[in-house]
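In this supplementary section we document a worked example of the pipeline. Step one takes a protein sequence of length 700 as its only input; no multiple sequence alignment statistics are reported here. Step two produces a three-dimensional model, which step three serialises into structure tokens for compact storage. The input and output of this example are shown verbatim.
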Amino acid sequence: MEKKDLKAYIKDTSTPVKFIKGVGDVRAKQLAKIGINTVMDLFEYFPRNYIHRKIEPAIFELNPGDSIAMTTMISWVNEKSTRNGKYMLNVGVSDGHSTLICTWFNYPKDYSQKFKPGNLLWVSGTLSEYNGQLQLMHPEIEFVDEEEESDFWKKRAYLPVYPLTGNLTQKFFRRIIYNAFEEYADKIEENLPASILAKYGFLPRKIALQKMHFSLHPEELDSIHKRFVYEEFFYSQLLWARHKHYHKEEVKGIRFENKRQLTAQLYHKLPFKLTKAQIRVINEIFSDMTSDKQMSRLLQGDVGSGKTIVTLFAMLLAVENGYQAVLMAPTEILADQHYNNITKLLEGLPVKVALLKGGTYKGKEQTKTDIREGNADIIIGTHALFQREISFDRLGFAAIDEQHRFGVQQRARLAKKHKHPDLLYLSATPIPRSLSLTVYGDLEVSIIDELPPNRIPVTTLIRSSHKIELVYKEVAKELEKGRQVYIVCPLIEESDKVDLLDAKRMQRYISTKIFPQYSCVLIHGKMSSKEKEDIMRRFKAGDIKILVSTTVIEVGLDIPNATVMIVEHAERFGLAQLHQLRGRVGRGSDQAYCYLIEHLPATNIAKERLATLASTTDGFLIAEKDLELRGPGEIFGTEQSGMPHFKFANLVSDQPILNLARKDAFQIIAQDPELKNPENKLIKNTYFIQFAEKEKLILY
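The serialised model returned by step three reads:
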């Protein structure tokens, strides 16, 4: 049966990994858990480190906190029982000059017998110090002298170390890597044209893959690895290049005329002056809208930078051309806020504004009729506006607030509605450039990088949990002035009730012991939407003075009277998250304060996050730092639609390569959009194998 199966795959890098000598069905299932299903997956599973069999004196240069990976010699082994009856294993290792101690608690019964003084041991981990002696607690180890089944690895000066889990061992993995290359290396195909290899001095793919696993010069691997980073960026950027070409050349949008009727009336009646950044962005949007291409633009601006007013100008441009405009908000309370603000700004202008919400309420059917028959010019609602049975008379423009809830596929669906309306996506979460080029490569980007002149920056203070009483004294002064306060507790998954109880206890403690004279209410994720919205409305009206929350307080909610934000366990929050929380205060003309309450112990990264937040209010700088500290997956969540899954590339450290790959990809598509030229044949074949399905979803 297996041989018959194998015939379908014979000698091809797409062959299932189970057919490699030494693997089989059981091991194949274990390999699938780390993403290895085919021979090529195995080839592309690179070592994360290399063991050098030679001992080089280096221990004397090391300090506690250093991360190390080095070959040492076992000097002594000592196993003893601890006070609670458990065993502790200490193994002294030496580089010939100095010694450090490796320590284990809770280890297999016969573990100590594996360590033989005089044998070579590779150790990896983070150093600590105990009684003046360098120590590695539960380090990763490998016995360098252990009998390898293959003579090949015995003779190597360097051994690769792979990121493995479960029952997979380094010994097994090295053996199948060797077997796979022996059997399938001649089937590795090139996926970059000779012109690009020559331009950047990249090695051919087959040689580069072999060197990543078998190199005798680990110092060369960083430059070899760049080839794989480039190819990953290059093909993902080809997708965006083709999308933009298709969007500009093939799809026709609505060509609006800048009549300067409603837009000019609004401009002259504004109670404030637009910032230079707002004017620049309005011009960028109008330039798109007055062309015959469909606008797909991302508008980024920090909390309070004035994105809504910019959006209103764009909506009025559509309305004065006889079209309807829509603004979609992520929640009903924000839709209410937009409706109230926009209605106020448009007083006296001949524009009909409608608010459409979920559920059933009086007047809803009439609103739907007004939208369908063209008696509503501007329609404000939630994201469900396009999912329900709502029909428009002449939809010309749609703005989506807090667009990060909208993945690339939803953007495509929206773009195809009606007669290709112009689309504006609003984001209060600043997005680092490398992410906007990869996650939002289908969009043009506008940035409002200037706050209105009357805004006073929020004062951010890091305080120890031991000094919380002093914080409450300072907060009392704000409450006496009639101001309002947010207290945020750590965010948890909804199934875990530990921190939720803490939040309830916090609310009880604040309302009985600290500020019994003020109304203090708890809001959390387990409440119904109606309950949460009711509490937020009461807070906005000033009936509630202190709000204790276990969830992120609504992004964009405008409560000028709230001047204090206290974040408990601030060390457990992400930077962008903390920045968003801080943005809930300081929305009026009074000085606002954000207290970051730190509970020890905090990691170095957590301390760096808090220090960054305390030192700047620049959302873009914070976003770059957040990406650097956490990586893109965590920022967007692994399920973010359109989030590219890069195997080799790092969006922080590899930005220069991203820029080169993007430039090359866009240049090629500009000259040969369908990749018909003979010199692009290899690119075309590789591209369509990878992206044919994805293209169908996003070419809009």
